[in-house]
Amino acid sequence: MAQNYKDELSGVETTGHEWDGLRELNNPLPKWWLYIFYVCIAWSLVYYVFYPAWPLGKSYTKGILGYSQREELVTKLAEGKAGQAKYLTAIAGKSVDEIQKDKDLLSFAMAGGRSYFNENCAACHGAGGQGAKGFPTLADDVWLWGGTTADIYQTIQHGIRSDDGETRGVPNAGMTAFGRDGILNREQIDQVTDYVLSLNGKQADAAKVAKGKTVYEENCVACHGDQAQGALAAGLDGIGAPPLKQANWLFGGDKATLVETVTNGRAGVMPAWSKRLDDATIKSLAVYVHNLGGGK
Amino acid sequence: MSTVTETPKAEKRASKSLFLKQSKVYPKSAHGRFRRIKWAALVAMLAIYYVLPWIRWNRGPDAPDQAVLLDIEHRRFYLFFVELWPQQIYYLTGALILAALALFLATSLAGRVWCGYACPQTVWTDLFLWVERLVEGERGERIRLDQGKWTARKLGRKALKNAIWLGIALATGGAWIFYFTDAPTLLGDLLRFRASSTAVGFIALFTGTTYLLAGFAREQVCTYMCPWPRFQSAMIDEDSLVVTYQEWRGEGRAPLRKSQGWEERTSAGLGDCIDCFNCVQVCPVGIDIRDGLQMQCIGCGLCIDACDEIMTRIDRPTGLVTFDTQTRQTALATGTAPPPYRWLRPRVVVYGLGILVIAGAIVAGLLTKPGLDVSVLRDRAPLYVALADGSVRNAYTFKISNMTREARSYTLTAEGLEGATLAVAGAEQDEGEAARRLTAAPDMVATYRIFVTVPRASLHDSSQSLTLILTAANGETASYRTVFLGPP
């Protein structure tokens, strides 16, 4: 029931709205509020003149200042690039080792390397290079293709088993699929995997280990080395065969995974980045990756 | 059904505004003891404010030589011999607590002396009033000028007053930012119109607020904006000195008639107050002190000066309006001998002890202020790295705050895990070292990436406590307790 009462106490008219006996005073807006409101309206008119304001279908009113946030961004980005230029030129002109020794360049390369890494590498190698099954941890001390800054630089440039002419490893060819290709039978695979387990101090059948040692010497030594020390330690470059006597396994060091690996072979692939990233970026990445765990 | 009820005219009440209409206060000039103290306080406060940023303090070649410098840009606070880093901001908290306690103490002893004499709002309002009086004349002239028509003379007076006000406001705003950057450099830049827009913007802001608050808002700030008057009553008790009208002596008030002698007046039941309104006219907040202690009263005592002047002139004892306690006034009113002023009261003791404790803690803290601070941030990705030989490595970001003015070198050691070795990223790697040397440039934070490698045999849990200890060449140490994570 809307009734236009005048409030007894204040003498102010009510709005006529009533909720369960409560009525609302029709007090005028405070003057300071009104004035600020009018000033805001006036200000908005000024804004229309100076700044982009009204949409006009596909275009909009530009305002006489011609301000554009997008252009501001473009300018700021260009400024940033210009500010980086001196470092980027220096990085491009120096070897990765030299960069590592220059304090300023090192901190610049590390900061840049971090964001390049997160954009390009973290998808497979994980944030901070923590790795995943089949994608090596870059923060540890196992480097199948070499862990010096120069090695890392080359690996990023040309990739591993990639379509790049200077790639490390042979494209589409990794560890032989001993089981699938019929080189070793199931029994032999069982024996050789037990032998590898025994190398790492894990539980293995002594009889199988003895036979597995022979299988190893006949089939595996060529790549993994006579001490199971891995290709690199055995002086064999460009193969990437991991040491088999270690705690850090790329695909897994348990019995089932080892059987799977020997049966089907393994061939980790990393693309060549020299076509996608410029030299300074790759050098920054090499420095960053090397510092993740100190490389080797 | 909706009906409209007309309010009968007879019932119509006078519409009552809920807002008090502001009436401009025209304080008359006062002369006397309290006015002199107020002038002295004003000069002292302004002197401190304007001179402080210009005092030089030699801190060596690479440090700013300004005695008081709040260098927000470089994140350092300099206060004479003290240099504070951002993480020591708790000293500011201590200083604020100290200021609050000092305010409480002063109030419980002598009422709102801070408000009346030392508060910037009071000091600048007083200064602006002095200018107003100088340009527009005494109270009566000012009222007439404001009520009169706009003539060339009025326009000239008002323009001159506002120009001087703006000049003072500009100097105030300008001096404020000298505290935040090197004062001589900034003044040079300002004079050559080369100062940054930030500096100019802040000067404009503080010029504007000074002009508005001291020129126009004045007592409104104290009455409506400041929270202090609202809770001062909790600090004041019946033994606090407050500005008091001696009602027992002054009432009933009536104008002095030449035909009436004092005996006649007294026998007619009249008191010493001759209702001259001088105490009201000098009041900077526009109240009548004879109404008793009021929320608006800033305790400046100018009404005492005004009343004393009149009392002297009419040959009556001074002190009809006086600084006194409620206890004494109650005794005087009943004709008994007033007890002596009791300043030693529980609240005074509590506030005083509080001040001593906080001040002591601050001084002790400053005297034993370390020159070294470390902070450690453990890498979260990867949480830990297993190495080929089975040992486990964790990486930490290690920050050294060298809070001294010389380059220092330190030895880093790890404690808590047997066989732990340390390596620093970027440095030449020689495995197996249990201690590493680190350096930090003067007054800088040095950041290192530290690798801690622990043999598998020492790992008994997936998370173990590890303490990194940094020892400076002079033996000063700082340690940080963190954790070392391993495989579950």
From TrEMBL, chain A:
One of its GO terms (cellular component) is plasma membrane. Binds 2 heme C groups per subunit. It holds the Pfam family FixP_N. GO terms for biological process: oxidative phosphorylation; proton transmembrane transport. InterPro entries: CcoP_N (IPR032858), CcoP_N_sf (IPR038414), Cyt_c-like_dom (IPR009056), Cyt_c-like_dom_sf (IPR036909), Cyt_C_IC (IPR008168), Cyt_c_oxidase_cbb3_su3 (IPR004678), Cytochrome_c_Oxidase_Subunit (IPR050597). Heme c 1 binds at residues 121, 124-125, 270. Keywords: Cell inner membrane, Cell membrane, Electron transport, Heme, Hydrogen ion transport, Ion transport, Iron, Membrane, Metal-binding, Oxidoreductase, Repeat, Respiratory chain, Transmembrane, Transmembrane helix, Transport. Pathway: Energy metabolism; oxidative phosphorylation. Coiled coil: none annotated. It is found in: Cell inner membrane. It comes from the Bacteria. This is Cbb3-type cytochrome c oxidase subunit. The lineage of its organism: Bacteria, Pseudomonadati, Pseudomonadota, Alphaproteobacteria, Rhodospirillales.
From TrEMBL, chain B:
Keywords: 4Fe-4S, Electron transport, Iron, Iron-sulfur, Membrane, Metal-binding, Transmembrane, Transmembrane helix, Transport. The keyword Transport applies. One of its GO terms (cellular component) is plasma membrane. Residues 264-292, 296-317 form the 4Fe-4S ferredoxin-type domain. One of its GO terms (molecular function) is 4 iron, 4 sulfur cluster binding. Gene3D superfamilies: Alpha-helical ferredoxin, Immunoglobulins. The chain crosses the membrane at residues 37-55, 89-110, 163-181, 193-214, 348-367. The keyword Repressor does not apply. PROSITE patterns: 4FE4S_FER_1, 4FE4S_FER_2. Pfam families: Fer4_18, Fer4_5, FixG_C. NCBIfam families: ccoG_rdxA_fixG. This is Cytochrome c oxidase accessory protein CcoG.
